């Protein structure tokens, strides 16, 4: 195997890992945003502690 081929395989693997990690990150942000939107649309009012938790999770993502 040539050094170039090995380097390309590693680069492809890293790119796939980055794409996978980004998908997980975006899904997590989306889930937390959905929870916040549901809370805001509810007639029961907003649970501030739960809302803050979802917002904190979004901010560190």
Description:
Helix content is 84%, strand content 0%. With 61 residues, the protein is an all-alpha fold. The protein has a domain at 20-61. Helix 1 (3-41) packs antiparallel against helix 2. The longest helix has 39 residues, at 3-41. The protein starts with a helix and ends with a helix. The model has no long low-confidence stretch (mean pLDDT 89).
Short description:
This protein is mainly alpha-helical and about 60 residues long. The chain has a domain at about 20-60.
Tell me the major beta sheet: none
Beta strands, count? 0
Number of helices: 2
Global morphology? rod-shaped
Distance between the termini: 39 Å
Percentage of residues in strands: under 5%
Could you say which structural class the secondary elements and strand pairing correspond to?
Answer: mainly alpha
Name the average pLDDT.
89
| Sequence of secondary-structure elements | HH
User: pLDDT below 50 for ≥5 consecutive residues: which ranges?
Assistant: none
Computed Rg: 19 Å
The percentage helix is: over 70%
Topology:
Layout: H1 3-41, H2 48-59
Helix pairs in contact: 1-2
Notable characteristics:
61 residues, mainly alpha
